[in-house]
Amino acid sequence: MAAYLPDTWRGRRVDVEFERQDGGGFEGILVEDNEGGVRLEIVEEAGPRTLFVPWSAVRYAELLDTPTR
């Protein structure tokens, strides 16, 4: 994918799918994206954690929340 996401996506819920045959991915809050990839905050039973996904592993990213103007 190797591209920046729109600034309006920061702080919003996104779905990031992996570039793998068996699929997989994460839903979480977009913390940031940069030239290396995306950083998400995901909530689990044990509490929130931050996850970094490099662009080389991203098949696509989808905004799940409706952005406000």
Describe this structure in words.
With 69 residues, the chain is mainly beta. The chain is globular, with a radius of gyration of 12 Å. It has no helices and five strands. A five-stranded antiparallel sheet has the order 4-3-2-1-5, with no helix packed on it. 0% of the residues lie in helices and 54% in strands. The protein has a single domain, classed as SH3 type barrels, CATH 2.30.30.
Structural class comes to mainly beta
Order of helices and strands: EEEEE
Number of domains: 1
The CATH topology assignment is: SH3 type barrels
Biggest pleated-sheet summary? 5 strands, antiparallel
* Percent in strands: over 45%
Give the tally of β-strands. Answer: 5
Helical segment count: 0
Kindly report the spatial arrangement of strands forming the biggest sheet.
4-3-2-1-5
Instruction: Tell the overall outline.
Output: globular
CATH architecture assignment name: Roll
